[in-house]
Task: inverse folding
C-alpha cells in the first residue's frame, strides 16, 4: 500500500520504498503521485537515472504543484547524473538540461527560493566548465602553434640543404619539403572529477 511504501521511505529504506512504489505503479500506471513518490525514493537511494524516469512520468499530472515539484526534482536528478559523468561535453549537456528544468519549476512557482538557488548554482558551475573547456582548447591550439614555430627553422634548414644539393647536382629533381601541420582531432586530456 502507499502507506507501507511511505513508512519505508521515512525509515530510510529507500530501495524498498522504491520497489513498493513500483509495484503500486504497475497496478496504477497513470497515477503521477506514485511516479513522483517512486522518484523521490530512487533519488534518495542515489539511483538518479531511475529518478529522472519517474519524475519525467510525474510531469503528466494536472496538479501544477506536483508538476512544479517534479521539474525541480528532475533538475536535481539531472545535476547529480552530470556529476557522475567524466566527459565535459556530456556533463555540460546534462547540466544544461538540469538548468532548463529549474527554469520550468520557476515558471510554475516564481517564489521557489530553492529552485532559484539551484538554478543559479548550476548556471554558475556550467559557465565555469564551459570557460575551462574554451581555455583548454585555446591552450592546445597555442601549443600546436608553438610547435609549428619551433619546426619552421628545421623546415627552412632542410629547404636550404635541398637547394644546395639541387644546385650541386642539376640532374636531380627538385622536391618541396613536407610542412609539419598540427594533427587534426586532438582532444585535450581531461582530469576526471
Result:
Amino acid at each position: 500500500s502507499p502507506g507501507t511504501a511511505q513508512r519505508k521511505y521515512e525509515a530510510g529504506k529507500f530501495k524498498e520504498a522504491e520497489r513498493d512504489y513500483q509495484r503500486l505503479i504497475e497496478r496504477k500506471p497513470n497515477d503521477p503521485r506514485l511516479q513522483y513518490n517512486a522518484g523521490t525514493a530512487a533519488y534518495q537511494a542515489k539511483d538518479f537515472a531511475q529518478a529522472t524516469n519517474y519524475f519525467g512520468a510525474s510531469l503528466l499530472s494536472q496538479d501544477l504543484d506536483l508538476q512544479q515539484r517534479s521539474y525541480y526534482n528532475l533538475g536535481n536528478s539531472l545535476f547529480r547524473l552530470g556529476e557522475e559523468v567524466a566527459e565535459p561535453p556530456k556533463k555540460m549537456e546534462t547540466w544544461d538540461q538540469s538548468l532548463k528544468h529549474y527554469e520550468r519549476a520557476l515558471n510554475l512557482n516564481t517564489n521557489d527560493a530553492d529552485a532559484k538557488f539551484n538554478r543559479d548554482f548550476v548556471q554558475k558551475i556550467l559557465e565555469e566548465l564551459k570557460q575551462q573547456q574554451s581555455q583548454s582548447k585555446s591552450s592546445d591550439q597555442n601549443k600546436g602553434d608553438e610547435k609549428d614555430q619551433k619546426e619552421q627553422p628545421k623546415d627552412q634548414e632542410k629547404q636550404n640543404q635541398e637547394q644546395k644539393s639541387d644546385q650541386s647536382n642539376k640532374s636531380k629533381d627538385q622536391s618541396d619539403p613536407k610542412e609539419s601541420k598540427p594533427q587534426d582531432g586532438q582532444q585535450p586530456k581531461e582530469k576526471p572529477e
Remarks:
- Helices lie at 2-10, 14-27, 32-44, 48-58, 64-84, 88-108, 113-168.
- The CA atoms of residues 159 and 165 lie 10 Å apart.
- Confidence is low (pLDDT under 50) at residues 151-193.
